[in-house]
Amino acid sequence: MKFEELIKKIEDATNKIESGKVSLDESIQLYEQAMKDCKECYDILNTAKGKIEILNKEFKDDSNKEENNSNDEVSE
Which of 1, 15, 6, 12 is nearest to 37 (CA)? Predict the structure, then answer.
């Protein structure tokens, strides 16, 4: 499931629980599912963070290579 869909499910569950119109048992079930959805969101965010860190490292490595190549050309 997509991150945005999970957030929507969590918001819907929160609204239902806060409305007071659901039973205690249903509130607990909604809360339990919302916590599972939160964990999935956290996992998605951690994966995205890892990808961004890799991309940033690759960009820095490429920038350093280009800078070194430019310096080599200037010194020739």
Answer: 6
